[in-house]
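Design a sequence for this backbone.
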């Protein structure tokens, strides 16, 4: 098995290559600007540096979202293009589930709450147990002082991701709220780890109809009205 994974859920991009023995190679590019132009270069480099070619791939996996509308669109378009060109199957993985997998081995007995910034006081989030199983589904949440209070009464909860900064001032004083010092970003490494299992169980998407998991409609900035003198 040779599996290429792509994550463009937030600004920047991450690419990884997994084989039968596990992770073979990976590249991560994090920048404040869109890095879509670099995605194809990273894909080429990660495959070549592991001494393979694109034709050797058995499947392509993609972080399906939630996340940045533009980032998800670029990543999914690239993955679908590769699937068509190479005639390979497509695997889609929930971005938040893959983020949770990064920390689940280190916080046994805790619940994990990855968060992706959705602008203003809103975040995309879900809750997982320490076995990386969903406890609460993926959703968009507008943060306030009561967010997650009921969950925190019974459990220690780890909040992380670029959306956790909105949560921290509201919940930092709660004894069951945990905020890791290290920054946790979406990564193709854990997208690939989950995709390996999906590949073994033939959990493939319909390439023609697959769309990113935007979670909410894209809202473009309102156009300013122009005053025209006639």
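Sequence:
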């Amino acid at each position: 098995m040779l599996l290429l994974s792509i994550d463009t859920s937030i600004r920047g991009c991450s690419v990884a290559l997994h084989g039968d023995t596990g992770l073979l190679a990976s590249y991560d590019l994090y920048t404040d600007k869109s890095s879509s132009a670099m995605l194809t270069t990273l894909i080429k480099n990660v495959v070549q540096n592991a001494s393979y070619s694109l034709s050797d791939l058995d499947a392509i996996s993609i972080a399906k979202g939630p996340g940045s509308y533009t980032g998800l669109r670029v990543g999914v378009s690239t993955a679908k293009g590769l699937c068509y060109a190479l005639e390979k199957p497509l695997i889609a993985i929930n971005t938040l589930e893959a983020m949770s997998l990064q920390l689940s081995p280190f916080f046994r007995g805790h619940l994990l709450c990855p968060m992706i910034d959705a602008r203003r006081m809103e975040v995309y989030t879900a809750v997982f147990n320490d076995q990386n199983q969903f406890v609460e589904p993926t959703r968009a949440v507008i943060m306030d002082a009561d967010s997650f209070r009921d969950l925190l009464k019974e459990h220690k909860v780890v909040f992380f991701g670029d959306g956790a900064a909105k949560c921290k001032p509201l919940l930092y004083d709660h004894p069951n709220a945990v905020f890791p010092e290290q920054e946790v970003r979406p990564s193709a490494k854990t997208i690939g780890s989950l995709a390996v299992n999906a590949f073994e169980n033939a959990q493939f998407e319909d390439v023609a109809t697959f769309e990113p998991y935007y979670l909410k409609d894209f809202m473009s900035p309102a156009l300013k009205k122009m005053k025209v003198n006639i």
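The chain has two domains: 2-94+185-200, 96-178.
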